Amino acid sequence: MKKLHFEGMISMEERSLKIVGADKSFFNKITNTLTRILIPTRIGINGMLISIKRNSLIKAFENYKSDDEKFDNSELEKKYDSAYEVYLDSLDKYVLDSIYKKVSNGTASEFEKDAMARYYEVTSLKENEYIEYKYRKQKYLLELDYEGIKLSGKTKLIEKYDRFYISKMDSLYKSILKNYSIKVADTTNKYDSTKEWIYTKIFHTLEDYIQNILSLKLEINYDENLKNVVSEYEKFESYSVGKLDTKDNIEKNMILLGISRKLFTHSLPLIVAEQCYEKLLKDARTLVQDTKIAAKREKVYAMLINLIEDYNIKLLSTKVYWETPSKREEYKAFWNKYKEISKLKETDFIEYVKQKEILFIKNDIKNIENSKIDYSKLIKYYKRKLVDYGVMKEIRNSYKSEGKYLKLKSKEVA
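^ thats the sequence. predicted structure below, dont judge the formating
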């Protein structure tokens, strides 16, 4: 793809957004009046030019995506790239020439004010995060035009544009996520070592994609292969309304990661998805420790168990390269035990759930007992669960499991 050029954009982007006040000179009042009169004309011209360039783009896209062997595909791609660049330039010019002026002169609608605010939000990335800016700028302009197309109610235009829009948005979202993946894998000191802000951006980007692009794909039956994500998408929808607490947000992000393993395996590779899962596990473990009300803590604990299962079954079971051979052997032993327990599912479901939970608890204790984070309260909670299930015995201030005593300080309460 050719590098996009936004001529004349830099100086305009650097302007501050100022609403013209009431105290003006006579000359300024006259200028303001003339501008109010001229803006609708400029919008009309821009609208017509955008429409022409949009139609050329759609035609170039359809030719590029066709399977006609009579044409040189590389030449069709060049024409498509060129049409896309010209189209984006026209959209950018519309924002700067029309929306900006209307906001500046106090004649903008709420939609236009919001559009301008989002424009500034995107362009603020340019200096320090140019790669992200480059993709998000395109995404913003396409979304802006798509909103107008939908409002037009022109069914044929919408149908044609949908194909281009989904294809291009897929590419942009993958590029954005790939950029975040590189940052997560970065071992330099340029970024915060905890990378919390990158994880947040990854989850927000996945949520944005599922709400705006995946939902559109499912609505128009864009791809038959998407049937395998419908059930997970429906789970996600249940978290898209109402106010979410910390537990709900962790569960929502868990669903997002599950869907990402099917839609973004290359742009969000396993090594990055693994770190995202570990981030959620850390948050979930901390939440179990911090929740004081017993009933709420049980719900958070159930969520943690589901997350542990997702992490081990959906992700680690597909892992090929391990840090050390010992880690791989440890997981192999866990996996064999899990498969053995899974045989109970058809014959004794209650026992299957119990044995699976016990396996997850024991495995997670191994994972966190030497952690830099203080999980002592969670470990006590886990051991209390094992006592309740009869696989551990509590003797005075210690727990006994498989002939070994696991001591607790007398002042600690499980």
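The two ends are 59 Å apart (CA to CA).
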